[in-house]
Amino acid sequence: MSKTLLIVHHTPSPHCHEMFESVLAGATDPDIDGVEVIRRPALTVSPAELLEADGYVLGSPANLGYISGALKHAFDQSYYQLLDSTRGRPFGLYLHGNEGTEGAERAVSSITNGLGWAQAAQTVIVAGKPDKSDLEACWELGASVAAQLMG
């Protein structure tokens, strides 16, 4: 039976998009077997898609010291449906921002702790244009969370 990794992202800038593409490339590596990767913009992901997924990668810019309104909206519309139904599911996080990423990281940590999700990989935080090592870290993030769903 196939597992599903849901990438919920808000990619308003070219830098965020580069990070997203690297996460996606890692998650869809041919060596990872039996994991379907679904990607949804944070403003359009449905509570049902979040409930049906077996794991998650979350991506957001850090805006004014917080996660994007789009990612916050995704959790606001589905939090109570996810509560108790998704405990223990693995997740990873990538953030892009020039300053204030601590507040964004803390916000996601509060939400995911409340849901009982398990952080499956170290958070990737990038300031400015992502360099080769930043994009490799994003690739590893996607691959790590997907690989954990293989079993």
From TrEMBL:
<feature type="domain" description="NADPH-dependent FMN reductase-like">
    <location>
        <begin position="49"/>
        <end position="125"/>
    </location>
</feature>
<dbReference type="InterPro" id="IPR005025">
    <property type="entry name" value="FMN_Rdtase-like_dom"/>
</dbReference>
<dbReference type="Pfam" id="PF03358">
    <property type="entry name" value="FMN_red"/>
</dbReference>
<dbReference type="InterPro" id="IPR029039">
    <property type="entry name" value="Flavoprotein-like_sf"/>
</dbReference>
<protein>
    <submittedName>
        <fullName>Flavodoxin</fullName>
    </submittedName>
</protein>
<dbReference type="GO" id="GO:0016491">
    <property type="term" value="F:oxidoreductase activity"/>
</dbReference>
